[in-house]
Amino acid sequence: MNVGTRPLKNLSEVIVIGGGLAGLAAARHMARLGRLVTLFEGSGLYGGLTATLGHVDGLPFPGTFAGQDLAIPLLEDARKVGVRVIEWSVDKVENGDRLTVTDGAGDVHRPEAVIVASGASLRQLGVPGEEQLLGRGVSRCATCDGGFYKGKDVAVIGAGDGAVHEALTLVPLARTVYLVARSPLSAKREYADRIAGKDNVRFVWESEVTAILGDQSVTGLALRDVNTGAESRIEVSGVFPFIGVEPVSGFLPEALRTPTGHVAAGADTATADPRIFAAGAVRAGYGGTVIEAMAEGVRAAESVARLLAGKF
Ligand SMILES: Cc1cc2nc3c(=O)[nH]c(=O)nc-3n(C[C@H](O)[C@H](O)[C@H](O)COP(=O)(O)OP(=O)(O)OC[C@H]3O[C@@H](n4cnc5c(N)ncnc54)[C@H](O)[C@@H]3O)c2cc1C
User: Fold this and answer.
1) pLDDT (tens digit, 9 = 90+) per residue, 257-305?
2) Atom of ligand 1 at shortest distance to CA of 280?
3) Looking at ligand 1, which residue's alpha carbon is closest to its atom 47?
4) Which secondary-structure segment (H or E) carries 212?
5) 242 lines ligand 1 (CB under 6 A)
6) Quick check: 298 and 26 in contact, CB under 8 A?
7) Are 84 and 31 in contact (CB under 8 A)?
8) Is 281 a pocket residue for ligand 1 (Cβ < 6 Å)?
9) Which domains, ranges and CATH numbers included, belong to the chain?
10) For atom 3 of ligand 1, which residue has the closest CA?
11) For residue 176, which of 194, 192, 153, 193 has the smallest C-alpha distance?
12) Is the pLDDT score of 11 beyond 90?
């Protein structure tokens, strides 16, 4: 008997970590294959990085969909087919003789297999003012907060797909959208063409943000030219940093992670541990679209089904 520790929980054969589109697709598919599945979602916001997108681009079927239009039906159907959903983060996965998964409540679970679909989080600028002014002019969601900036000047930081996606959301609302980045535009062609034609967009390339200015709310940005070191300021009331994402995998054994923090797994989602699979944005080599995330989730579930078929 374990004295002073919580009991082991073995109510599921498979644990899926993360309720983004990769995890939801994996858990639903796994349950449809007849397995006992528990899905953990740490933020309580299903859909992960897409949860706050007002418009998801690049879907291979017609129509306009917000991230929630994709996530909520998947979540509801996953529940319907028997997925147990727990709103806790997973704190630790250990892969000794038995797999153990410790959740944020301190409960320990012993599944036969784990699908890691913990995705990525938005990278921070790490400059003064960013944390202090979050929610007071600093925002990580143009769809949620864009309405506060009608007729005002805002800055989106970044030059990739995410930054331009969010800038395009702000263009119809804001008076001016500054797009500020250290490097030239690196977004895909379609986004580059769309943003180039907008009259109220000002490009500020080869400049890095050194501080977000303001006391009670954002009043501007301090910038430094990356070539000359010259300092300048622009006045804005909203700042939207989108400088890329970082994988979320700190709860996994070091041996399964790459130096960048991704899970080392091929396109078949298999890791070096035959009981652990990885799907979506947390996986090294992931292609970057929600369709790929969902496809990888399904692929991981199929792999787990084959593994368990050999056992039970
Ligand atoms: C600004 C922006 C715009 C984008 N626009 C598009 C677009 O238009 N079209 C497109 O195809 N793609 C787009 N993408 C990319 C897309 O959002 C991602 O590729 C996709 O969300 C990856 O899905 P995922 O499920 O792998 O990870 P995520 O979406 O990151 O979901 C991971 C989930 O796991 C949870 N989690 C993390 N750690 C734990 C833990 N320890 N325990 C429990 N839960 C945990 C998180 O809370 C999260 O809900 C965009 C991305 C950004 C940043």
Assistant:
1) 999 999 999 999 999 999 999 999 999 999 999 999 999 999 999 999 9
2) 26
3) 43
4) strand 207-214
5) yes
6) yes
7) no
8) yes
9) 8-122+245-309 (3.50.50.60), 142-241 (3.50.50.60)
10) 162
11) 153
12) no
Report the alpha-carbon angle 86-87-91, nearest 5.
95
What is the spatial order of strands in the sheet that 231-235 belongs to? 207-214, 218-225, 231-235
- Compute the radius of gyration of the chain from its Cα atoms: 21
**Taking CA 161 as the corner, what is the angle to CA 29 and CA 259, rounded to the nearest 5 degrees?**
70
Assign 182 a pLDDT band (cuts: 50, 70, 90).
very high
Which of 118, 156, 286 has most ligand 1 atoms within 8 Å of CB, for mutation?
118
Residues 6 or more apart in contact with residue 217 via CB below 8 angstroms: 133, 136, 137, 237
3-state SS class at 175? coil
pLDDT value for 7: 47
Place of tokens 């159907």: 77
DSSP state of 223: E
CB 50 near ligand 1, within 6 Å: yes
Residues in contact with 117: Cβ distance below 8 Å, sequence separation at least 6, in sequence order: 16, 17, 18, 20, 22, 23, 26, 278, 279, 280, 282, 293, 297, 300
What are the residues whose beta carbons fall under 8 Å from the beta carbon of 58, sequence distance 6 or more?
A: 289, 290, 291
Bridge partner residues of 85 (DSSP):
39
- Structure confidence at residue 10 (pLDDT): 55
For residue 15, the cross-strand partners are 38, 114
Instruction: Give the position, in ligand 1's atom list, of the atom nearest the Cα of 282.
Output: 26
Is the distance from the beta carbon of residue 181 to the nearest atom of ligand 1 less than 6 Å? no
What distance, in Å, lies between the first and last C-alpha atoms of the chain? 27
Only one residue has tokens 């009043």, namely 219
Question: Could you read off the pLDDT of 100-147 as tens digits, one per residue?
Answer: 999 999 999 999 999 999 999 999 999 999 999 999 999 999 999 999
